[in-house]
Each structure stands twice: as structure tokens, then as C-alpha cells.
Write the C-alpha cells for this entry.
Amino acid sequence: MAACPVNVLWPEDEQPTLSGACALCEICYYQCPNVEFSKDDVEMYLHNRIRRPDEPIGITRGVFVGRATKSDIQTNAQDGGVVTALLAYALESNLIDSAVVAGRDSAWRARPEVATKYDDLVRNAGTKYTPSPTILGVRSAIYEYAKSRVGVVGTPCQIRAVRRIQTSPMGNRRLAQAMTLAIGLFCMESYGYDKLVESYVTSKGIDPSTITRMAIKKGSFIAMKDENELLHVPLKDIDAFVRNSCKQCDDFTAEFTDISVGGIGCPSGHSTVIARTEKGLELLKNAEKAGYLELRELKPEEKGFLKVLNMAQLKRMRTAVKPTQAAV
């Protein structure tokens, strides 16, 4: 949608939809990671090598447990607030001039927001659990805000789109060059907005506009108003609302980012943080030195690290096709 040169692809019910006369240029085809995605090409682009067999969650340069140090970030952000803190430092240090994050409207419908200052980041902090067309936000940053060094926060599939654009022989060069930092979120799945929020949450007598935070913790889906729980149900109760495309994804830890962040394998109020590129590791270390983050190394033998590996393996196994199914 973001790369369409005649602007006729737009989201409708969370799907790219043709809204005008297609120019038959095929540009959208060559940006899409679901059409073609070469892990080897992307890893050569990022690391000048491909992963070894002993790198089950992709190439890494360090794995840490961390949290933001600023109290307003801790209050508003998810888990340890690491993503918000990293973006705040990246803006302050001029590594980026804007960041595309997932915001929301009053009814909890996710949408991309272009953050250009600290307050924008804090206001849009927190996980939304329904899809936001992130790369459209990058286009907005370029053409509406005149930005050229954009940090992108996304789920694994969205980060794959970033890398597909950057490595495709027909990738949109302006988008590719503008996306200078990619931070990925651990993700097992996301949910359709119409099913999860418009239908299910409202069927429980909850007005979505009263929700201040959503979370998935210890096998439960939770919706809160400030410190009070409005809804707390087992994840199996909302399994039917998982988006079909998520069932085909095998990437849990956002393997093709500069930095990956998630709430698995760490204490409450913290995040697991994986530095993947040299740029990502340098950003982490500099943000820590500047007082934006507290970090400690997460060693491979620790229980938290093993939990991340297990979750990644579980997602891969879930998408694997059994030989008997393939035969049929």
C-alpha cells in the first residue's frame, strides 16, 4: 500500500484493497514479503553472512534483560518500556528524526502514528494487539512530515516488509533509504480488530473507549481501565480471533531487526532485548550510558533465555506442515 505510485491501495477491514484504477506496474508485488522473502539475502544485507545452524533465533550480537529508567515511560509503556526509551534516545541523539509507532483511536483501533518528540512516544506507548498499517506511517513521515531518517517499530511480519523493500531489486528506494532503524516486537499472533474489540470485548459489556491498557500475561488476555481489570480471560477464549496470516508466520523474535524486544524470559516490569546488528548494539549501549535504560546480560544457560528459544520453536512447529497433510 505504501509503495503504490498511484495511491489506489488502501486498507479496508484490515486488508489492502484496490480503490481505483491499477496501473499494472507490479511495484506492490515486489515489496511484499509474503510473495517472496529470502532470509539469506536479508541476512547478507544486515550482517554480511547467513546464520549458522547454532543460531536458532537468528544472528545476534547480545541478549539482555532491561527496562526504561524514566517513570513516565514505565507508567505508560508495555513491560519494561524499552522500545519507548530507545526511540526517545534515538530522537535525542539525532540517529532518527522521527519514529513510526502504533497508536490508536478512542475505540482502540490501531493506526500508525509519526512521533517526532518525546511526548508523542509516551502518548502512544503500549501494545495494541490488532494490526496497524505501519509502512503507511513511513510514507506519511516522508511525504507529510518531510522526514528522512525514520525509526520503525513493528511485528515480525512488518519488519520483513521493511527488509523486503530494502533488498528487492524493485524496492521503493525512497522508503528503503528512509527506514534507518528497525525495532521488532516478539509476536506469537495478533487479532482481528472487528472480532476481538468490536464483537468480543463489547459483548462483555465493556466500552472500548474506557480501556487504557491491554496485555497478554501468563496465558490470559487482560483489558484494564487504569489499575482495574475490566476483562481477564484465558487466551483460548480468543483463539478464534487470531488473524489467518499469523498462522503461517514462523518468526517469533523478529529475527531481521536491528533490535528485538519482548516480554518473554524476563521478570515482570522488564523486557528481553536482543541486539542483532552493530547499529542496534551501539544504540543499546549508548542509551544505557545516557541513562535511558538499565540492562544486564541474559546468558544462554539462563531459564529466561531458554524460554525465548522454546517459544520460538513452538511458533515454528505450529506453522510446519505434516508430511501426511502435504501428501493430501
Summary: Confidence is low (pLDDT under 50) at residues 322-328. Residues 191-241 form a domain with the Nuclear Transport Factor 2; Chain: A, fold (CATH 3.10.450).
